[in-house]
Design brief:
It contains eleven helices and twelve strands. The protein has 325 residues and is an alpha/beta fold. The longest helix has 17 residues, at 141-157. 38% of the residues lie in helices and 20% in strands. The two termini are 38 Å apart. Bound molecules: ligand PBG. The site of ligand PBG has 11 residues, from helix 6.
Length: 325
Amino acid sequence: MTFPTHRPRRLRRSEALRGFVRETHLSTTGLVYPLFVCPGTNVRQEVGSMPDVYQLSVDKAVEECREVADLGIPAVILFGLPERKDETGSEAASATGAVQRAIEAIRKSKINLLVITDVCLCEYTSHGHCGMIEGENVLNDPSLGLLANAALSHARAGADIVAPSDMMDGRVAAIRRKLDENKFQDVAILSYAAKYCSAFYGPFREAADSAPQFGDRRSYQMDPGNAREAVREVELDLEEGADMIMVKPALAYLDVIQRVRDRFDVPVAAYNVSGEYAMVKAAARNGWIDEKRVALEILTGIQRAGASIILTYHAKDAARWLKHC
Ligand code: PBG
């Protein structure tokens, strides 16, 4: 028996009914706001391709964190820009780097925020790749120690969670071991486990000045055609000791988020990346879409697919919008 007995529209008649039967309630509790921390003081430089996103010096980053916490957003993820780049990205592990100083300053200010750090070398290397290179090859094993040292420097500064985004094999194990050896057994690892080689990172590379100077990242980031391989990547990272895993980007990979959610009982994060943000901003600025509705619909979709943690440049906007919904 179907129509006229069954009428799905019955439950859509009023906002009260719609709210009553809604399956996914977007909230600020899983949002993470990304910040780009740069050297200097009093720097607040807007990123051309990412309206309302800034490169911030440590002092300004702390101000921003206060605003983020006041909006009820629980976490930030920090990306760093170095004073100087070199072949091995040595500033990634410097105790006086912008990220390390920012973490210390946030801790000192007693702002109630989880501090996550992106662990990678691409912002710090002169060649812009996420590991050490030999000729045109990105070397896996020699990069692991550098990444582990960067993670350790973040933990020493006071990070709660380190998030390796380099896609080298074995980096989660290397980081876990290094943290444990140094008594940071309580610092958690959020691994960018299924990170695809994506053109959606374009604007980020302007923000973090991290574009590869030759070639691309196809030899380490995943091929966009592969979903089963994502399951394998997640499995390996969990075996190596990841506490949480991430799928990135989000929008073109909702099936991957769902697959990973269904297969593993760990917190699943998704990164609503720079290109996804830039497209919404650009279309909204042209008057072609309603930014608020589109952004909230996108975030709802990512959560519905199975991500309980969402990294998004729309986090502050979303927190404001959700307050007034
Ligand atoms: C660093 C890193 C990237 C992003 C996060 N960490 C860029 C890349 O892999 O090239 C992208 C984030 C975004 O686009 O918002 N490896």
